[in-house]
Amino acid sequence: MNREDLLFDYFENGLDPYEEDILFQQLNIDESLRKQFHQQMKIRLLAREDTMHIKAPFEATQNIFNTIGISQKVLQTQKFRRNFLTFIQSKQARIFPALILIALLIALPTFYLVENYAVNKFHSSNANIETNANSLSKNKQNYPIVSSSEDNANSPENNASHSTLNQSNSFLAQTANTAILLNSLEDKLNSIYSKKLNKINSDYTNKLQQLQNLLANNQNNLATNLDNPNNDLLNSLNNTSRVIQFTTNLPFNQRNNNILMNNKQNNYFNYQKPIEMDLSSLISDLLPKSYLFELNLIGINSNYTYPNVVLNNSFPIQYTYNITAYYAINENHKLGVSYGKEQFPQQFNRNIDGKNYQQIQNPYLNYYGVDYKYIPTEIFSQSYVLPYINLLGGATSVGPLAKLQLGGEISIFKRLALTAGIENSLLFYNVDNIIYSTNKVNFVYGINLKF
Amino acid sequence: MYKNIVLLFLFFLISCECPPQIDTSKEIIPNEYSYCIFFNINSDYKVFSVNSNKIEIVNSVNFANTSNENYYKFPDNYANLLLFNNNTPIFNTLIYTQKFHYYTFFFYKFEGHSSYLFVEDAFPDSLQNSYIRFLNFNSNQSVNFEITSSLPQPIDVFVNMNDYTKLIPMLEGNIDVSIINPESQNLIAKYDNINLKQNSITNIVYMGDSTNYNVYIFKSNK
């Protein structure tokens, strides 16, 4: 096994003690191998650090879960709940409070130390980026040079230590050489990293510029179309809202990306603030993120009735309405209870003193019942109008009532929607042991409030 | 849980109100019926309702109301006719009507007693005429009704006390009617420009006694 193989295996798989001794002897002897060793180590550390920060974009993750029909939120919640319950039931939970206390005692001073270090490091690296990577390497020459390289041989201030260390060839000399190597590596990596950062910076700047241009165009379109609104105006509004939604969803963390911030990106945040301050965002921020209950207030307008009853003497006209309170089982399925008042025309036969009569009437009846509502959110998740199907099974004072309602919800705010639809209601009633029915087709309209 | 849902639906199926008894506006129409119109010329009762076999046919018939000109559906064959004034029965009789025939019911006061006249309004629709009927419910005298129309000569119709004429066919248009004392030939009253419509009946009722008289004109449309 040659030296490179030993080095590779050391990092990848580990070596047995014998091979490890050989490797360390070679490292002690060979400077180039030692340099290679440190390079490998540094690269692996940096690679690990870089990969730790990489996260899948939020939209991509969400799209994947939506495609396979699983709610990411539900999965995360279930996973967290399962892990939490498992942990609570385990023996580790008994010592958990003590561990937390110890961890806090350790974490607090460590945090302040690390924070101070990070702040200092950030300032120094920020300054380095602003000059350039080459100047970094020149500045680093101020460190004491303890190697035997010719570049530093003429350095007068280091001549004494140079000669001493060169002669001793001790562990200290090796350590000093390693430090020099690490410094040079750090310089190079800094330059690469700063280039990468600049590239990311420029990409974000370009994207931001595109978004700003798009928004400016849409605002111009809005201004030109204000006097004669048409479909273009509506499309413009839609595009603007999508842009705003996109920009607010960017996986951008200001604290973690401070290094990327230049003046333009600060403008980006300044530009974003007024969008976040609009009324719907404020209301949605005030309301809880998920809802369990829903209230539907609906007015009913009858368009077709069977039997069609026209009375000579009319009864006072009353409001016809329906109030439904739902419990949301999930996004698609809701169960509720209803109360309503509606006119149900009736026509039936009676036998009075041996003579047959036909009675017609159009009474206002109160009804109550149980509702089931289904909203296919998977299909219409991107739509502004959410269609729904509502089934009601209930009763009036004269008999059972069934209703089927098809309609749509148009969101005004996140929790407030306008509803409109068509419903077919069927009332059964019994007169002299004969079952009669009233069939109605209604136009319904109202509001829907989620809380 | 499921037991409760089943119980809830069973509760829904049990109705607590019988549809015929609902407090709302309703119309009860006999399956086999004739057509009747009711006039109230009895000054003792400002209003009455007409019922037949516990079914209300007309809610209110006001005294001397000439505005209503429509017939009501009334159970055919033998049927009980009951008049109510403030939920108090004031008159009860049994009448016979034929299916889809037209009838007029007069409830009036004669010599201090409540009386009624129930007559059939039989005339052929094909002639396209208008019709006039004279009724004399005056308890004191007979009268002559003189009709002046577009015809060259007036028509005199003599009507005894508590009597009425058959339907007299007339041409559509305006007529003048004079009520004359047949003995003295004095003019009692005159009504000008009474409009006669096609396929309608105009009832001219003379009422009163030796000192007072009233004339009512009721119209009914088929």
- The Cα radius of gyration of chain A reads 38 Å
**What helical percentage do the residues of chain B reach?**
under 10%
Can you give the helix content of chain A as a percent range? 40-55%
The top-level CATH class of the largest domain in chain B is: Mainly Beta
Task: Output mean pLDDT of chain A.
Answer: 74
> Which structural category do the helix and sheet elements of chain B fall into?
mainly beta
Oligomeric composition of the shown chains: heterodimer
Main sheet attributes: strand count, strand direction, barrel closure of chain A: 8 strands, antiparallel, barrel
Give me the CATH architecture of the largest domain in chain B, please. Answer: Sandwich
> What is the radius of gyration of chain B computed over CA atoms, rounded to a whole number of angstroms?
23 Å
CATH superfamily membership of the largest domain in chain B: Domain of unknown function DUF5300
Question: Can you describe what's shown?
Answer:
The complex is a heterodimer of chains A (451) and B (222). Chain A contains twelve helices and ten strands. Chain A is α+β, with helices and mostly antiparallel strands and 451 residues long. Chain A folds into three domains: 3-195, no CATH class; 199-278; 286-450, Porin (Beta Barrel), CATH 2.40.160. In chain A, strand 8 and strand 9 form a beta hairpin. In chain A, helix 2 crosses helix 3 and helix 3 (31-53) runs parallel beside helix 9. The longest helix of chain A is centred in the middle third of the chain and has 55 residues, at 171-225. Chain A is elongated, with a radius of gyration of 38 Å. Chain B folds into two domains: 31-122; 125-222, Domain of unknown function DUF5300 (Immunoglobulin-like, Sandwich). Chain B has one helix and 18 strands. Chain B has one helix spanning 2-13; strands spanning 26-30, 33-41, 47-52, 55-62, 72-75, 77-85, 88-97, 102-110, 113-120, 130-138, 143-148, 155-159, 163-164, 168-170, 173-180, 187-196, 200-208, 213-221. In chain B, strands 10, 13, 14, 17 and 18 form a five-stranded mixed beta sheet that branches. A four-stranded mixed beta sheet of chain B has the order 5-2-8-9, with no helix packed on it. The longest helix of chain B is centred in the first third of the chain and has 12 residues, at 2-13. The model of chain B has no long low-confidence stretch (mean pLDDT 88). At the A-B interface, strand 4, strand 5, strand 6, strand 7 and strand 9 of A face helix 1 and strand 1 of B.
